[in-house]
Amino acid sequence: TFCAVCGGGWLEHRDNWDWFVKVNYFLSTKKSGSHNLVFGFDNFKEWRKNDNWQSGSEYTLSASSAIIDGANIYPVFRSDNTTYVNYLPILQRSVGNDIKTYSGYVNDSWRLSNQVSFNFGARYDLNRSKDQSGLSVVTDSQWSPRVSVTWDLQGDGEWVANASFSRYVMGISTALVDAGSAGGRQASFSWFYQGPAINTGSGPYLTAEQALPILWNWFFSNGGTDRTTRTAPSSPGVSTRVRGDVVSPSSNEVSVGIANQFASNGIWRVDYVYRKAIDQYGDFLDMSTGVVSDSTGRRYNLTQVSNTGKAKRDYHGIVAMATYRFRDAQLGANYTLGRMWGNVNGENVGSGPIRASIDSFPEYRQESWNYPMGYNPGDQRHKVRGWFSYKIPFPETFGSLDLGMVERFDSGVAVDISGGVDPRAYVTNPGYISATPSNVGYYFIDRGSFRWNNVWTTDLSAVWAKKLPQQGTSEIFFRGVVTNLFNNSAQVSGDINILSRTNNTVYQAFNPFTQTPVQGVNWDYGASFGEVTGVNSYQPARLFSFSVGFRF
Questions:
Q1: Fewest CB within 10 angstroms: 18, 52, 75, 503, which?
Q2: Other residues' Cβ atoms within 10 Å of the Cβ of residue 438
């Protein structure tokens, strides 16, 4: 997988720079209070140059399964549409992309009186981007207003209420800019293997070196790359294009809260936060998006990339916190009750923004099973942190010693689990030239209803420090930390494989538009579903770490 020697002298280049200018001005008046004004300009540029080779030969294979016999692994190739050949060529080398954002902003922190203060701000972002083919792609602009008010109810700091509205605009991502670029990106063609079955009976079995020539001889003797593809081909720069109306995704946030200071040493506060995602990216491929041809005359249905209004994501959260200071100690806790809800995942750690497929081949999808509303991955209903710190009253001669403890609780994280269904037999092709989808996501269980274990963790720390004589504030120190003191081992990830007709012929096909699938007949959990897949499936084990040093 991938190719480390196909770069022609370089593999990948990524870089960015940022420069900005900011001016502050403070204005105080007798009648309208004080204003802390900030003006600024920010210029951010990033670029990337890479040829995304998927393999040294530009081909990959997906086998039906494998037979593992000790140290020997034998591939299993079937002719029942569970083995397929992928061709992933790079049709044009990259010249590097160029993504720039020019931003101007202004903010006024206005203290009207001892009881009321406001914050008004606005930011304007102008995006100008070129893809890795050197073509201009994104030329959008967005406003980001922000306003908040803080009210000291009695003017003595005991009760303080606040409310705010903010809009946050994302930068244009590299993945979006290059979505329609031919430069450096692999095309994608895939075909079912329908030749002789290999290693499907009893042994002796053929090794990969013996089995692969049989597969390739059949493939190239039966049309090779001229065969009908199993899925819609993707030809970057041809079959996928970024529309000129695409804009940066954004999020609107509303929050309200109240805080109270009690007993002179204590404080608590509660805040409610609501966020709604807007203008998420999506793919559009239907009978209205058109047909295009590549240099060989092969025709494709065009996929257009833009923003989709059908993608929904929002977040509700209540955050409560309290702290109390004693003479030599501090006690505190916070609690978050949250809900992430939507019908698309929107992003992940590896890719950042993910384009929704809701508007791609819409005749072959249905909201109730392909993009239903539910908990998004990462939804965590409860999060609790409690901490205690104590400063041991040592004589100054012996230095200082601070002890701390943190107790953490994280409720189980929601997991996105879906299987697949082949809807082609139940949909009349309205005229698509490209291969219609043979495997469409199907939520056999409610979206996000499966969760991993709750996680409890206890951490301890000790920090000793001693000032050096006649050295001002300089000191030597030792810091020791034990995380997960009781070595809890909650499971935080694992196997989530769902079986259906698309990946196992044991299960019966069904009409997703009119039938309700039956577990054990049309689908089921994989044999290892829910089981750990490695050491990272557990929360981190007990760990002791320490540091020593000199501070000045």
A1: 18
A2: 20
